[in-house]
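Our preliminary data section would be incomplete without showing what the modeling component actually yields. Below, a chain of 132 amino acids is followed by its predicted structure, encoded as tokens that our downstream tools consume directly.
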Amino acid sequence: MREVSVKVDGEMLAVADFGDGALVMDVGGKGRCPSPMDAILAALGGCTAVDVYSILTKMREPVEEVRVHVEATRREEHPRVYTDIRLRYVIHGEVSPEKAERAIRLSQEKYCSVGAMLREGGCALTWECEVI
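Predicted structure:
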């Protein structure tokens, strides 16, 4: 089981202590650091990027870098959950576009837990890919 302890101070910063690391979030809306909702987008990007990189490496594709640009739309009323998230993968290296798309599909459909959790909550995830 994973545990985290979160403390909010008078500066409206939330510090999530994982025991082996920490995450600071701005819960006051001042834009000093990522908000909790920003952290979800970063978690999604990190989760799927590492999947795609690992899968391409196992396919013996000469991948150099995987970047994921994440854009999201939130519902206007509370709770202001994400309704649509768009992922744009930019894959650097002499990678086959077909294999890149296969790696992304595997991440989206099988491996990325963050994406699965968001989809289960009713969020639509779409993606596109560019190999450069």
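Residues 1-33 form one domain. The chain has two domains: 1-33, 36-131. Preliminary results of this kind motivate Aim 1 of the renewal.
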